[in-house]
Amino acid sequence: MDETFEGRFAQAQLLWGNIAARPMRAFLSILAITIQVFLVLMIVGLTTGVVSEWGKRVEGVGADILVQPPNSSMFLAFSRAVLPESLKDKLTKLPGVDEVAPTLTLMDQKNFVLVYGIDYQRFNALSRGFLFRSGKPFATSNDTIADDIVAQSKHLKIGDKVILLNHEFTICGIVAHGKGARYFIPLKTAQDIAGADERVSMLYVRSKGDIEATREQILSAAPGLGVKSMAEYTTLMNSSNLPELKPFIRTMVGLGTVISFLVVLLNMHTMVLERTREIGILKALGSSRLDIMRLLLGETLVLALLGAVTGIAVTFLAEGILKETTPTLQILITPGWLGGALLLALAGAAAGAVYPALRAASYDPVVALAYE
User: Fold this and answer.
1) Which of 159, 181, 261, 317 is close enough to 352 for a disulfide, judged by CB 3.0 to 4.6 Å?
2) Are 134 and 148 in contact (CB under 8 A)?
3) Residue 92: domain span
4) Which pTM value belongs to this model?
5) 229 part of a folded domain
């Protein structure tokens, strides 16, 4: 028992001694793993965060049902303004419908921010209404309401002028976030800007209680339209359910793993060449091939673990900085992806170390001792 403990302690001392003896190689290996973990977590965190936050904002509007044109994008900013505004009157008459709010979605390309053109009274009636931090509703056609997140990000206050959709607007109100868009302008103004007279992108509908029955009534009254319950919509607004995002996430994860694999492979191959005589001495002293492989793979996994922990720490640091500097940018880092990034780092590093470790373990001790 003592001999086994002493042997393991000696191996641990040798492992840490080898790492400390080559600080630059150790630093480069840790840096490569850190970059891999950081890239994976940030890319996945950004895509997941944006999608998840968007789903919550749509849900916060207060509607039960969303009516869109056929084959509309899941992201409402890209919905076409082809629905007749008059459809609201037809839907309002349905027995299961309590409120209908026609909405025109516009993307301000310059500021990369979503703007809703709304009928204020109808949109506000969908839920308990806007929660004003300051200011009041629209008074003129050139007024705009901003949510508190974009107001904080842009340092906006009541009366400030902002350029949206290449038009100047005056901030008339600042409201609590979570109502879909970052900015809200009068529906007629949005239609004039978009050249979409009496047309809208979608209709938010609040039922009288029976959501599924109301949905069937809408489909019967307006066949061919995209009619989803908000529960269905928010379930779909998940990065794992969006086929367009899956290849992107897989590609980024794959690239990160390949980076760590190649860097570790190069470093380990160089290290084995540098330590040929040392490996020969270890084998001459009785170390087996398995001992040599265990030593080299152990060093790699220790470096990979240090790099992964550093990468996770850097990711959370970057997330904290971005929350302060860019509050409109949402990052969601889940425990599942933390574990996934750690496993990917260890797997990539281990794969890169296998060939050099096998090569070192196969050295003939006599040849290795004669190596210059």
Assistant:
1) 261
2) no
3) 70-224
4) 0.68
5) no
